[in-house]
Amino acid sequence: MHRFDLTGRTALVTGAARGLGRALALALAEAGADLVLVDLPDAPGLTETADLVRGTGRTAHLHPQDLARTDELTAFADRVRAAVGPLHILVNNAGVAALERYNEITPESWSRTMRVNLDAVFFLSQRVAEHMVKDGVAGRIITVTSKNALVAEAGLAHYNASKAAADSLTQTLAIELAPHGITVNALAPGMVETPIDGEFPFDREAFEAAYRERIPLGRYARPDECAGALLLLASDAGSYVTGTRIVVDGGVLADQMPRTRFMPPYRNTLDPDRPPSP
C-alpha cells in the first residue's frame, strides 16, 4: 500500500466545499496529503471540509477563489505556491451545469460554463504545472470531467462541450508535461449523489428512478466511490498512467442498449433450484 501513500505531498482541490470535491479532498488527506481547499469565497461548507481534513491529522489551507475570474488564476496560483510551498497534486474538480435546451442557452450561460469547466482548468493547470517544473516536482494533474465528455445528454450542450474539451486538453497537457515527469489524467464520473444534479428544475425522484434503470449497477455512485480512481492517478501507483481517463459510471457507457430488463430472468446454472433474479 506504500505505492498509494501521499505523505509529504500537498494537493490542491477545487470545488472542495461539498459533494465530490469534499470526498476527493478527504481521500487525499486519508492517504497522507496536506490539502489546499478552493471554492467560491462565499461557498458554504468549505470550513466544514477543512475541519474534516484536519480530523485526519493533515493540514488544510483555505484559499477561496472564483474560478470564473480566469484572469486572476495566474496570480492566484502564485499566491498559493508562496503560502504553502510546492504543490504535488492538482485536482481540477470545480464545475457548473445548467439544464437548458439548445435554443435557451444565452451567451452568458455558455460563457460561464466554459470559464469554470474549461478555461479555469487550463489556466490553473498551466501555472501550477510551471511551478511543478521549477520546483522539480514529478506532479500529478487530475481533471474531473464526466461521462458526458464521451457521450451527450439533451439539455446540456454547453456542459457536454466543456467536458469533451477538457478531456482533449488532458491529453495535450499529458504530452507536453511528460518530459518533466508530470502526469495528466481525467477522472470521468457518471451519475453521482451530489448537489449539482439536485439543482436541476425537474422531478428529481422520477428522473433518478428512470436513470437507475439505465445503470447496470442499478444506482448512483456515492462520492467516495470515485476516490479509488483518484488515488491511483495521484500516487506513485499510477506513475506510468498519463493522457488517459478513468470512467467511474456503474457501467453506463458499456451498455449501449439496456436490454437485460427485457430478457428472461437470470438463472444460476450452479443453483437451479434458486428462484430467478433480474
Q: Can you summarize this structure?
A:
The protein has helices at residues 19-30, 46-55, 73-84, 107-135, 157-177, 195-198, 204-214, 227-234, and strands at residues 10-14, 34-38, 60-62, 89-92, 140-144, 183-189, 245-248. It is an alpha/beta fold and 278 residues long. The protein has a single domain (2-262), classed as 3-Layer(aba) Sandwich (Rossmann fold).
Description:
- With 278 residues, the protein is α/β, with parallel strands linked by helices.
- The protein contains 8 helices and 7 strands.
- Strand 2 (34-38), helix 2 and strand 3 (60-62) form a beta-alpha-beta unit.
- The protein is globular, with a radius of gyration of 20 Å.
CATH superfamily: NAD(P)-binding Rossmann-like Domain
Q: CATH topology, what is it called?
A: Rossmann fold
CATH architecture: 3-Layer(aba) Sandwich
The rounded distance between the terminal residues' Cα atoms is: 37 Å
Structural descriptors:
single chain; 278 residues; alpha/beta; Rossmann fold; 7-stranded parallel beta sheet; 7 strands; 38% helix; 12% strand; globular
How are the secondary structure elements laid out?
Elements: E1 10-14, H1 19-30, E2 34-38, H2 46-55, E3 60-62, H3 73-84, E4 89-92, H4 107-135, E5 140-144, H5 157-177, E6 183-189, H6 195-198, H7 204-214, H8 227-234, E7 245-248
Parallel strand pairs: 1-2, 1-4, 2-3, 4-5, 5-6, 6-7
Helix pairs in contact: 1-2, 1-8, 3-4, 4-5
